[in-house]
Amino acid sequence: MEKGKKVVAIDDIASITKFIKVVLSRANYQVFTANNPHEGYNIILEVKPDLVISDVNMPELSGIDIFNRVKSNPELSHIPFIFMTGTSDRDEMKNVDYPAWLNKPFSDIELINTVEEVLITLNGAQKGKKENFTFP
Predict the structure, then answer these.
(1) Residue 55 lies inside a defined structural domain of this protein
(2) What's the CATH number where 33 sits?
(3) Rounded to whole angstroms, how far apart are CA atoms 45 and 107?
C-alpha cells in the first residue's frame, strides 16, 4: 500500500480527530483534522484528499451533507468516504447502502484496516466504472 496519502478527518469531538491523527500519522498518512463540519468541507476543497473520514451526526452540517457536497463537485467526486457512527446513527441509516463504516468506539487496528481496505479497493477499481452514491 502506498503511504503518504492525504486523509481528512471530521468530527465535532476533538478527542476523536486527535486519535485518528495520531494513529494514521504513525502509519505514514498525512492527516488533516477539523472539529467543525464547515471547516472540514473547506479543508477538503483545499487539500483534495485521497480519503475523508467523517462523523455522521454533527451540528449544522451532517457527514452525509458533506458527502453529498463532495460528490456533487466534479473535482472532488472521486474521493471515497468512511463514515463514523454511533449505534443509534447507524440504526437511523439502515436503508443507506454505503460499505465503509466505523462504529464508535473503534480501535486503532479497526481504523487502519478500514482505511487501507477502502484505499486498496479504490486503487483496484477502474475509473469511470465507480458508482456515485447520493443520500436523500
Answers:
(1) yes
(2) 3.40.50.2300
(3) 28
